[in-house]
Amino acid sequence: MPKTTTVTREQIENLIRRMNEIENARSTCTVDEIVAGISALLAANSEGWVNGIHIPDRSTKNKLNRALFELVDDYHRAIDHIVIDPPFVSFVWHMRSVKHNFEAHGCSIFEVDEAVLISRLWMYFDPAPFRAMGMQI
């Protein structure tokens, strides 16, 4: 029997919009503000997988976000396509940095809990552009 949820499509859409706004505010916010803003959208017991590698907790995800936003100070992500089927959302995205001559494409899948926080996430992308900038992904 499918899991029932009270989370609505609109709530999930707002969550994704808010996350994208936070991530794209790097030019006007500090790394600490960006990391804290994203962290606030993750459930305390959240976990995830990045290209199949388990990210066991919010603290580990925060460290990954910190490394990205410290390196890419002109980060910008656009969401190309989104599919919402509560409590899940999947979206195709691309991110770029003009300063670092960098562009990456990927997709993410989130499970959203009853508090409208991300409880589990899966992210898939080609790591080559990140590695070319010196990130260990």
Query: Which overall shape is indicated by the principal axes computed on the Cα atoms?
Result: globular
Terminal Cα span:
37 Å
Strand content: 35-45%
Please report the total strand number as a whole number: 6
- Helix-strand pattern: HHEEHEEEEH
Q: State the major sheet.
A: 6 strands, mixed
Arithmetic mean pLDDT: 93
Continuous helix count: 4
> Structural class of the secondary structure composition?
alpha+beta
What does this structure look like?
The protein has 137 residues and is of the alpha+beta class. It has four helices and six strands; from the N terminus they run ααββαββββα. A six-stranded mixed β-sheet has the order 2-1-6-5-4-3. The relative contact order is 0.20.
Summarize the structure.
The chain has helices at residues 9-23, 31-39, 58-71, 128-132, and strands spanning 42-50, 53-55, 76-85, 88-97, 102-112, 118-125. It is α+β, with helices and mostly antiparallel strands.
Defining traits:
single chain; 137 residues; alpha+beta; six-stranded mixed β-sheet; 6 strands; 37% strand; globular
Strand and helix map with partners:
Blueprint: H1 9-23, H2 31-39, E1 42-50, E2 53-55, H3 58-71, E3 76-85, E4 88-97, E5 102-112, E6 118-125, H4 128-132
Parallel strand pairs: 1-6
Antiparallel strand pairs: 1-2, 3-4, 4-5, 5-6
Helix pairs in contact: 2-3
